[in-house]
Design goal:
CATH topology: Protein-Tyrosine Phosphatase, Chain A
Largest sheet: 5 strands, mixed
Structural class: alpha/beta
Number of domains: 1
Oligomer: single chain
Radius of gyration: 14 Å
Number of strands: 5
Strand content: 5-15%
Distance between the termini: 28 Å
CATH superfamily: Protein tyrosine phosphatase superfamily
CATH architecture: Alpha-Beta Complex
Strand order of the largest sheet: 1-2-5-3-4
Order of helices and strands: EEHEHEHEHH
CATH class: Alpha Beta
Shape: globular
Length: about 130
């Protein structure tokens, strides 16, 4: 796992596997959000497999599959989930879509676009094309 911090309570990662879930729970993570559509690559674990492992490890799980840039309804769904401040790991193939949806969700709550871009850049993500 390569967790990258976007805020005090949100991290991104590239593809996670079901085997990663116990370690996330042991590290204090409360929720996992998958932003990866099923079937993007051969041998990628299905969201249902990751969800079952997450729940077995005591983690909440949500699936908001994103292709390309996140849509406003997806950002709203993420904002609702993240509003409670629970420690959350969001993942997709590389972490980029997760960083984008996180920033769009935070922007809905009034966060400054430049601050969000800076936080993402510090984690290694360029949100220059993301409409914030």
């Amino acid at each position: 796992m390569d967790l990258r911090s976007l805020s005090a309570s949100v991290w991104t990662s590239a593809q996670l596997s079901p085997a990663d879930m116990p370690a996330l729970a042991a590290a204090g993570v409360a929720r996992v959000i998958s932003n990866r559509p099923d079937g993007e690559e051969p041998h990628q674990p299905a969201a249902a497999e990751v969800e079952a492992a997450a729940r077995d490890a005591g983690l909440a799980f949500a699936w908001i599959p994103v292709s390309g840039l996140p849509r406003p309804d997806q950002a709203e769904a993420a904002a609702e989930l993240l509003a409670d401040g629970a420690p959350t790991v969001m993942f997709c193939r590389s972490g980029m879509r997760s960083a984008a949806i996180w920033a769009m969700a935070q922007r809905l709550g009034g966060a400054d676009a430049q601050d969000l871009r800076a936080a993402a850049a510090a984690a290694g993500y360029d949100l220059g094309r993301v409409p914030l």
